[in-house]
Amino acid sequence: MDEITRLARPEILEMAASGPGPAVQPERDVLTRLDANENPYPPFPGTVDGLPHNRYPEPQPGHLLDRFAECFGTPRERLLITRGVDEAMDLLVRAFCAAGRDSILICPPVFGRHAVSARVQSVAIHEVPLRGDAGFELDLDGILDVHRSDPGLKVVFLCTPNDPTGNLARRADVLALCSELLGKALVVADQTYVEYSGDPPLSRDIDAHPNLVVLRTLSKEYSLAGEQVGVVVAHPEVVGIVGRIVIPRPLTQSTIATVTAAVTPAGIEYAHANIRRLLKERRRVEDTLTAMPGTRVHPSDANFLLVGVARPQELTQRMRRAGIRILDCSAVPGAGDSVRISIGTYRQNDAMLAVFEAHTAFGGPTATSV
């Protein structure tokens, strides 16, 4: 598709395609593997999980791609497995942005490695802040102004629900941006937290918007942050381009086994049950914090809350002394005096709320507006 290939770096297009595809021969049919210089003997018996750790895993495990396709409601040829969302961002920058010529755009306040990837690639970074006076909505006019002034803009990174603000971007805004930038730039939506929003994932709109790229992960929904599994959901042309430079085997044997169990029907129901519990806790924590003096709790579509509060650094230290970690966001441009609080279990949340209440009861100035 010309609208996609014209955006990619020419030297990447010249590389041999190596994206996901069916294995030449299913592993179960292989009797003897003498093609990859592997050690034929299993590791020391202290490794008791029974996995073939002496063998390289599949580059893009076919059974996982099939399960992800079902979980995400998208065809398998639109999927590429990466070592987490951060690597996916890095691959997109390297595949589509030429050093010293092209640029990306981000919308702070936002966390993510896109800026680091751009700097390593010598790619310029534009910042168009979210509209803090309008619930952290996208500034579409500001983004399009940058596009008109810089024809080298190749990738617009969005986070929806956004971290640390927690809000979901309006779907109509994201799709309008895709329409305006078709053939000119990719619109990459990090949807790490989408399962907490109740909103259908943006990947459903890729047919109509081939320059839309959606990033998914199993870290939050499936409780697999320690496994670092990311999935690029995109038009097959994008998958093919990024697949040329992805590491050959992004997942270990252990990770493949863990993820395989997590995306079974029983694993999916377990994950969804946990999400329901966390959403119930999010409402309780939000209501409790809102009732405390001097706080401003921002509406959230994620598994965390951004809370405006006076003396956020002091509050963070109070929490640490109580054995609780929250994130001070006061140094994040656009976040004001605030902290980000992940939603935990009932007991964990109660412990956090007790410290928070003691902090607000102490009095003092109110939080700086964000």
UniProtKB/TrEMBL annotation:
The keyword Signal does not apply. Signal peptide: none annotated. InterPro entries: Aminotransferase_I/II_large, PyrdxlP-dep_Trfase, PyrdxlP-dep_Trfase_major, PyrdxlP-dep_Trfase_small. The keyword Transferase applies. Keywords: Aminotransferase, Pyridoxal phosphate, Transferase. GO terms for molecular function: histidinol-phosphate transaminase activity; pyridoxal phosphate binding. Its EC number is 2.6.1.9. It comes from the Bacteria. Residues 34-352 form the Aminotransferase class I/classII large domain. Its cofactor is pyridoxal 5'-phosphate. CDD domains: AAT_like. This is Histidinol phosphate aminotransferase apoenzyme.
